[in-house]
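Q: Protein A?
A:
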Amino acid sequence: MMDGTYTFDLERIFIGNLPLLFFVEVVMRTTILYMWTLFMLRVTGKRGMGELTALELLIVIGLGSAVGDPMFYPDVPILHGMAAIALVVLLHHATVMFTNRWPRAHDFVIGRPRQLVADGRLDLKGMGESQISREEIFTGLRQERFRHLGQIRRLWAEPDGKFSIVPYGVDDVRPGLPLIPPDDVEAPVKHPAGEPAPESHVFACDYCGFIEVFAAGEVLPVCPRCKHDCWQYASDEGVRSGPAPAAA
């Protein structure tokens, strides 16, 4: 296209006006951006990807960009886009083969399950590693119709962002931290550390779900597990036998 006059030029459409050495630049650009995008996805976390792993999302982004630009920009030759698409696919297959062979590479690229709940309490280390908040965990459990943490034996965050839940059996449910949102009309009353327990009851740390029995009038301490300074009554819904609080 010159001086406002359009010419249907197949050489321009498929090859463009750039020298063949530009193919080397296409390879370099695609490889660098592929590796950079993969690195950034793994560093910034995987939440918000829906049901895609970092590797799956990466090939979607790479192919989308490689396919889209030659469609809309007349100065981007189709042949260059085809080269970028082929390179993204080849890099994807090479990455899959590499991660299948080297477990450490698999853990970095694909990720591995992170434990978020263990024995009815939040796993604070796993939450930090997976960058998942307490509210996200509680929301996921409420959507699965759980009422308190004492119903959960294990919960993992999978590499695709989903939660895998292993509940306690009906005979093993223990008291646990209620999952009721704080703005709900039935939200439990909270009891700050330093105040006496209003009655003898099983209490749950308002943050991590640590369980402890306090007698009436006993001064409530900070949580020995997470140092949070607030408690609430543990829910005993579904508990069939006299439950003993979990050890720290």
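Q: Protein B?
A:
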Amino acid sequence: MFSYKNILLVGSKEEFTLEKMYFRAFKKIGLKVTLYHSDNSVKNIIGKFFEKYLSSIYYLFVRKKFVNFFFKNRKKYDLVIIFKGLFLNKETIKKLKEKNIKIVNIFPDNPLNTQVKNISNKNLVNCIEDYDLFCVWSQKIIKKIRKLKPKSHLYYLPFGYDGFIHRKVPPKKKYINTINFIGSYDPARLDFLKKIRDNDLIIAGNNWRDHIKNEGNYIFGKKLCSIISSSLISINLLRDQNKSSHNMRTFEVPAMGGLLLTKRSKEQKKFFPENKASIMYANKKEFLKKINFILKNKNKMSKIRELSYKLSKKHSYTRRAINILKRLND
């Protein structure tokens, strides 16, 4: 079916990462796939220091380690998929392509945001046109890249859900009257969530410990599915770079049978039409208004949950993986 039989993914092997989700997706398709662990996505204090203040040295070390693995490995890959790849440079990509290998980059942040070193850098931007396919989740960002790098091979690749871990499960009594937010801390998100009564709210994600009562840094697997499948509302607070677009929770919540309450955006409306497959808000006032509406109309929400769950089936990472391979074959 596909001309690419042996695929190398380059990123993080941490269980919750996007690369691990794509690893499972490519395996489900029936292809040989290897996941090379280039770097931790969640770094310790030393790793954060080197990446922030000595990034050129840090990425040189990561790059040399990868090159050593790739060229001493006896396996022959016909497709290499890089996740972010901040450590790569033009010379390394050129060496890979000399092996008659297709090189794809799946970039889950904003590649043009070079001010924040762990998001992007100038070296990454300089390499965009060298990839056979550079995949970005935001149509708005793609338009900006196209103006800056007109020779680049860009592909709109939305986020999705992992069919192996994001599943609809029978509701648990302990969660059926709750509202949840699963995501990392930032001040703007805290400002929204403080408006909801503590006894109704479940919060989980990175760096919440010092700010508000929470369930822990990481909720994954069965517990995540139980909370989202059972809760009255699953809140999605889009960050600035996602405002016109979507994020991972956009697809994960419906796939787990949750009721998605999210910031209004054009892309999300296309995926999950407002008031039919999702509930949306524009500002804090409307956010609270929508929560009160949902709580007073619990029975009406079942149809929205059902449609969003049905629509989510088109957005698995297995489907995304197949679409990448089809695009490369065009």
